[in-house]
Each structure stands twice: as C-alpha cells, then as structure tokens.
Amino acid sequence: DVQLQACGGGLVQAGGSLRLSCSASGFILDDYAIAWFRQAPGKEREGITCITMKDDNAYYTDSVKGRFTISRDNAKKTVYLQMNNLKPEGTAVYYCAAQRNGQGEYGYWGQGTQVTVSS
C-alpha cells in the first residue's frame, strides 16, 4: 500500500522549533514532489512549502519563508520540515502530500500531525 505518515508535531512556545517528518512507503519517493500543507481551525488548508523531485528545489509561502526549511532524504524515504521561530498563527494540523512527477494533483496524503504554538 502507498502511505505517507507525518509525525513530529507537538506543543511549543512561540519562538520555539519543531521538526516534522513525512515517511513514505509503497512508492519511490524520488519520483514525487512533496509538499507540506497546514489547516488551522476554521480556515482553509494552505500549502506552505514543497520540494521538487530530483533537483531538490524548494519553494515557500511568504508567511514561513526564512523560518521553515524543507528537505528530503530519498534513501530514507523521508521528507523533513524544520520549523523555527514558530508563531501562534502556526497552530494547525500539518499534512504532507505527494505529487507524482511533480505534476497534477497531490494524490497521496499523510494523516496530519498537530502543531500547537502557545503565546
């Protein structure tokens, strides 16, 4: 079965850091672009960062640029999201998703991991 599993969320104070992991099974990770999304209570899900397939180009939404870093280890089939200087507005469920060949829909989604940032 194709699966993504996100973990690493938790409760952190504003200004703190967390590292999320997204582990893949059942497919070859380097055939996929991987993105992180988040959904805050009462808000729509938003894409915050993605990393391309083999060349590892990373893109960030403005709200996380300079504070979050996405990286991938294809051998370990894992994508990481290092989140520094977290802000209370970063409280959300974070999801990872995979996009085959970097095109089209994100066909595979992890189950989400809760990040809560206290002020």
DSSP helix count?
Answer: 0
Rg value: 13 Å
Global morphology: globular
Share of helix, binned: under 10%
Please identify the structural class as seen in this structure: mainly beta
Largest sheet: 7 strands, mixed
Number of beta strands: 11
Low-confidence stretches: none
Estimate what percentage of residues fall within beta strands.
over 45%
Mean pLDDT over the residues: 94
Distance between the termini: 40 Å
Name the helix and strand elements from N-terminus to C-terminus, one letter apiece: EEEEEEEEEEE
Your description of this structure?
By secondary structure, this protein is mostly beta strands. It has no helices and eleven strands. The strands form two sheets. Strands 2, 4, 5, 6, 9, 10 and 11 form a seven-stranded mixed beta sheet that branches. A four-stranded antiparallel beta sheet has the order 1-3-8-7, with no helix packed on it. Strand 5 and strand 6 form a beta hairpin. The radius of gyration is 13 Å and the shape is globular. The termini are far apart. The mean pLDDT is 94.
